[in-house]
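Review form for a predicted model. The reviewer records the input and the model, then writes brief findings.
Reviewer: anonymous (R2)
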Amino acid sequence: MSKRKGVSAEEKRNRMLQLFYEKKEFFQLKELEKLAPKEKGIIAQSVKDVVQSLVDDDMVDSEKIGTSIYFWAFPSKAKHTRKRQLSDLEEKLEITKKQLKKQKENLNQAQAGREDNPERIETLKELKNQKELNQQLLLDLQKYKDNDPDTFEKAKKEIELLKEGINRWTDNIFSLKSWCKNKFNIEESILEKQFGIPNDMDYVD
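Model under review:
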C-alpha cells in the first residue's frame, strides 16, 4: 500500500485562504483548528503555524478584541496584496536594470585597462550577483502570473528587455575573454579563474 502524500506548506496556505474567502467570517484560532480539518483537510496541529504565516505575509488580518484574537481575510484584500507585491517586484526590477546598466558602463571602462585590473574583476562579480538577483525576481514574478494578468504582462515585457540587456552583457564578456586570450596568449580557464568568470556562464533563455 502506497504511503499517503502529505500536504505541502504552500498548499495548506492556499486552502486556509480559501476557507476564509468562502466563509467571509471572523474566527478565533480554536474555531479554525476545528473547522480547517473538516473543510480543507488541514491537520489541527498545523493550523496555528499556517494562519500565522499568512498573517506575517499580510494575507490574513488579525485583531485582539478583549482577551480573544480574531482572524479574517476577504478576496478584496488578497487582490490588493498581490498588486502591492507585484508593484514591489517591478520596483526591484527597475533598480536591477539601472544597476546592470551601471555595471555595463563600468566593464566598458575596465576593458580599456590591464587584463588584471581589480576593478574589472569586481565588476564581473557584481554582474554575476545582479544576474542571480534578476533570476530570483523572475521566479518571484512567476508565482503571481495567474493573479493579475495585466500587471504581469507589463512586468514580463520589462523582464524581456532586461534579459536582452543581460545577453548583450554576456556577449561583451565573451568578446573580452576572446580578446584577452588572443592578445596575451592566455588559456581560457586561466582567464576565467583570474577574473572570477563562471565556466558555465551562458546566455539567459
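Findings: Residues 9-73 form a domain with the Arc Repressor Mutant, subunit A fold (CATH 1.10.10.10).
Further findings: Residues 181 and 187 are 6 Å apart (CA to CA).
Recommendation: see findings above.
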